[in-house]
Amino acid sequence: MTETIDTLVTHAHLFSMQGQGVGYIHDGAVAIYQGRIVAIGSTSDLEARFQITETIDASGCAVLPGLIDAHMHTPWAVVRGVAQDVSNWMQMALAPYSRHITPEAALAGTRLNVLEAIKAGTTTTVDFAKPNPGWAEVFEGAGVRARLTPTINAMPPGGMAGWKVGDIYPLDDDVGQGDIDTAMAFVSDWHCAADGRITVMLGPQAPDMISGDQLLQIKRLAEREGLMIHMHVAQGDREINQMIKRFGKRTPQYLDEIGYLDDQLLAVHLTEATDAETVLIAHSGARMALCSGSIGIIDGIVPPARVFREAGGLVGLGSDQAPGNNCNNIFNEMKLTALFNKIKARDPEVMPAWEVLRMATIEGAQAIGLGDEIGSLEAGKQADLILIDLSAPNLTPAMDTPIRTIVPNLVYAGSGHEVKTVMVAGQILMRDRQVLTMDETVVQAEAQRQAEAVSLRVAADPVHKKMALLTAMEAGQL
Ligand SMILES: [Zn+2]
Predict the structure, then answer these.
(1) Total-model pTM
(2) Residue 70: which of 202, 264, 266 has the closest Cα?
(3) Could you read off the pLDDT of 19-68 as tens digits, one per residue?
(4) Any idea what DSSP says for residue 160?
(5) Distance (Å) from CA 321 to ligand 1 centroid
(6) Residue 41 Cα to ligand 1 middle (Å)
(7) Which domains are present in the chain?
(8) How far is ligand 1, taken at its centre, from the CA of residue 72, in Å?
């Protein structure tokens, strides 16, 4: 008897990402049943093998696993563009805004960012944010896969905006404990929710933003609950300066000594890690989230992902936040990652297109701890996939034989706007560029409205007068 399936995606330039390369199959097909992939192979083989409920014709399209964004801060999308091209980005550019983003504004940012991500082919988002009511529901409703990380820090209310650069932060243990308790309540509510689509990580914001005791408390909780820890590590000279003043050592040595470096840790950025420190972290089994666009714009630095990978570490790509990147688009991250690392090494063979495509798919999945579920198209895995229209002028001609040019063109010429259809766990979230799970017009209008309200509140705050953006405007540069 013929086996019945829900969906067969046919006639694709199929990049399964199986094996050590990109796993290309000419005229390929993907068979899907109850949200999972049951087979991949040639279109003719799978058409003969299955009784098919719905066929999705992917002629002229590349079909890939959905892209993975290993590090985001979605609420910040509501103030896209307010912080870039400045020194002391966090304290001087971002902080003046943070205290004026209401929970409603934050939610509007999250909705906008999830919409932007879906439209650029991102199916898994690893978000790091304050767990305002409604935050997780955005991901649940949009149908994307999410690893949600409620922010834990011990920063007193009001935040950094009034602090002097270089002073030791006035941490407050009560605030830290409150955040830990909130995060654990969020874990009970959301870990493995929405048929397992939503999972939770514990997120001490950074080792300089919480006491050592509370950092260790989080580690114990993560071990007890079997959760990963998602933390900014060596994310800037500001952090290293704090760590030396508080503990007399740099972040990687400190984390090593307190037993924080292991495969439970997703270490974000490593901006200031030396090569030796990078190797230490990679050898521990910890994984790295690389945010090429964000760290380029914020710090003018190329993080040491090449050293990390050469030491055997797993790297995923992250888009970070919209004030200072200024987009959340993994196509952008793939291209910048390949270019920046070639330029840094003065070597065009460093980080070829196929490798950064793996970092955006299978390697990214492994880095965030979901390598068994997503990141490649293979039987048993979740049906998270995207169709990319290769007839877009910037992707034409699409050559398959005798020379195949699709992967380098996707990485160096793709913008994300060529993504045509997006599926997560077998559910179509976007078909022919129409997002089916969100109302695009409403999401964008609400983000605009909230952004205007935030900017009025910021303008009424005296701290605004010191902002670099205002000076640039007055000089006619914006
Ligand atoms: Zn971040």
Answers:
(1) 0.97
(2) 266
(3) 999 999 999 999 999 999 999 999 999 999 999 999 999 999 999 999 99
(4) G
(5) 7
(6) 39
(7) 3-65+376-435 (2.30.40.10), 67-367 (3.20.20.140)
(8) 6
